[in-house]
Amino acid sequence: MFEHLVVFKFNDSITPAKQQEFVSQLLALQDEIPGIIDLTAGINVTEETDHIQGFTLGLRVTFEDQEALRAYGPHPAHQAFVASLSGWVENVIVTDFPIPSR
Amino acid sequence: MFEHLVVFKFNDSITPAKQQEFVSQLLALQDEIPGIIDLTAGINVTEETDHIQGFTLGLRVTFEDQEALRAYGPHPAHQAFVASLSGWVENVIVTDFPIPSR
């Protein structure tokens, strides 16, 4: 399996409702894109306020393997999400790593 | 369930071996701390190089609920990990969010 973690920082103009719309779009990807084992996304409610730094939305996608992650990038449903971020997003950080079997 | 995503940026002096040591420490937490449903961690191998920004280690912990996350913070095994970061870590970003049941 392969883990894909993304944190999003939005422009100051974003509202909670708009962020929730992005969360809903992300959650829908699980049913639209093959190779996803599990997907979670949500608005950041961390109590570690020093570590928010403006990153107010998190995404975790667990893929079957790295090939599935590579196929996710250009998938039309993912690309539609990426396009919808235009004008809203200020920064995105991504970490990807293999998940060793336990 | 409750999701806890963390990305770590280290000082330039860190080596891959030292980062792997942190990954191993993190993976061990699953067996030491109650309330963890799943935990993954790894050195960032993302191919989205524009989105690394120095964040070279990712962690995902899925907890039973927010109370379990709150108990994880001060747990001695977690605190020992946090102490071991001293002098190595430059920045940490955290996103936490509830996982709606599907």
TrEMBL record, chains A, B:
Position of the signal peptide: none
Segments forming domain Stress-response A/B barrel: 2-97
Matches recorded under Gene3D superfamilies: 3.30.70.100
InterPro entries named among the record's database cross-references: Dabb (IPR013097), Dimeric_a/b-barrel (IPR011008), HS1/DABB1-like (IPR044662)
Domain of life: Bacteria
Pfam family of the protein (one): Dabb
Subunit relationships: Homodimer.
Record-given protein name: Dabb family protein
Organism: Paenibacillus xylanilyticus
Lineage, broadest ranks: Bacteria, Bacillati, Bacillota, Bacilli, Bacillales
